[in-house]
Amino acid sequence: xxxxxxxxxxxxxxxxxxxxxxxxxxxxxxxxxxxxxxxxxxxxxxxxxxxxxxxxxxxxxxxxxxxxxxxxxxxxxxxxxxxxxxxxxxxxxxxxxxxxxxxxxxxxxxxxxxxxxxxxxxxxxxxxxxxxxxxxxxxxxxxxxxxxxxxxxxxxxxxxxxxxxxxxxxxxxxxxxxxxxxxxxxxxxxxxxxxxxx
Amino acid sequence: xxxxxxxxxxxxxxxxxxxxxxxxxxxxxxxxxxxxxxxxxxxxxxxxxxxxxxxxxxxxxxxxxxxxxxxxxxxxxxxxxxxxxxxxxxxxxxxxxxxxxxxxxxxxxxxxxxxxxxxxxxxxxxxxxxxxxxxxxxxxxxxxxxxxxxxxxxxxxxxxxxxxxxxxxxxxxxxxxxxxxxxxxxxxxxxxxxxxxxxxxxxxxxxxxxxxxxxxxxxxxxxxxxxxxxxxxxxxxxxxxxxxxxxxxxxxxxxxxxxxxxxxxxxxxxxxxxxxxxxxxxxxxxxxxxxxxxxxxxxxxxx
Lengths: 198, 303
Fold this sequence. Notes:
The complex is a heterodimer of chains A (198) and B (303).
Chain A: H1 3-8, H2 15-21, H3 36-40, H4 51-59, H5 63-67, H6 80-84, H7 91-104, H8 114-128, H9 133-146, H10 152-167, H11 181-194
Helix pairs in contact in A: 8-9
Chain B: E1 2-6, H1 10-14, H2 18-31, E2 33-37, H3 46-50, H4 54-71, E3 75-77, H5 80-95, H6 97-109, E4 120-122, H7 123-131, H8 133-139, E5 148-152, H9 172-179, E6 183-184, H10 203-219, E7 224-227, H11 230-238, H12 240-247, E8 255-257, H13 258-265, H14 283-290, H15 293-302
Parallel strand pairs in B: 1-2, 1-3, 3-4, 5-6, 5-7, 7-8
Helix pairs in contact in B: 2-13, 4-5, 4-6, 5-6, 7-8, 10-12
């Protein structure tokens, strides 16, 4: 860590170092807190902390506040912040990094259902090699229903949509499994054994 | 004939955007391109996998890249999310040697190798740059005169990588629409976000984004929206009724893929363009252009 970084940070438990050390995370150093990201973000008004605020909190070492917030989970990956940032901070990448860290520390925000959708999506890819949309949706709604995160009424509201998609031939009723699903499994298992990107 | 390795992506191959895949194949021949589907491709991983486990996500994308490298062709996808995800894996592997080392090890365990030489391209960019608007214009037999179109880019065609078009005010799709004879409407939301797959976990938030885009197109007099992304089409089309209910509006705006619009102008049989898969029907809006299609096909054959 150089002198400027030392002055900028109150990083007692190493959160800043952690954020720096993942691919793309090093760009947090360059932020000048101008707020262009927050002004560009379509969902900033609904976030606990705006993208600019998130970066300020990371640099203040506030692991819990950052990782327990809803901010990164409602990032839609539109990359407007990233292309507009005058200092080339990879804000969208940072948001995805924070999602991974938040899940790792068990701090995932309870009000947002994004992580349940991610789980259903990733499991679908792992078992078929491709996303089986109907299966993924059913798993997502079932898991959120069983944990009481959505009420049955919210699910009923989705039925006409599912029906319309099926009637228009846009929802396959059985999954497609790739031939190389064993090969894919080998790749994923080796990646797990290597313990992540860092 | 120009040849490409083709990566349809999950939704365009047989899912919610199957019309995108079908209309892509329907126009390819007429444009002089052959799309050879990548043998046994897997899901690119998209945002959900990348936000769950970085190394696994990069490795499964690298499997596709390794398979594509064997073909020696550019890898073309119609999906903006696949485009961004596969490009992201490519640039991470290039920038981070440690990550590359681990990814190499994972691929080697499965008998694969990726040297880093695959160029990932979006179908729209290929048609725009490799075929070009002049050639497309010369092939138009059924000009879409009088059709008022809102050009919708969404996010991940022009972002995050700069270069192909202006990431804040893109123009390429505008130009394509004009070259097909259609009329552009002013569309300030042309590069706004539709929310993508957030529509599943966070429908309230996403319906707000969808509503804004529909409002922007409708208030400027658009008869339809044209898009380059399967997620955008699904959100604007399939979720339009829910957005109408939530915001007490009555929008009735068909959302077409740019491939369907090209197909109509080129006089390709409307059936093969899978227009009937749209939930907000485009039949009325497109009726002046679908009727003249049949004789137009014959003319194009003579030429």
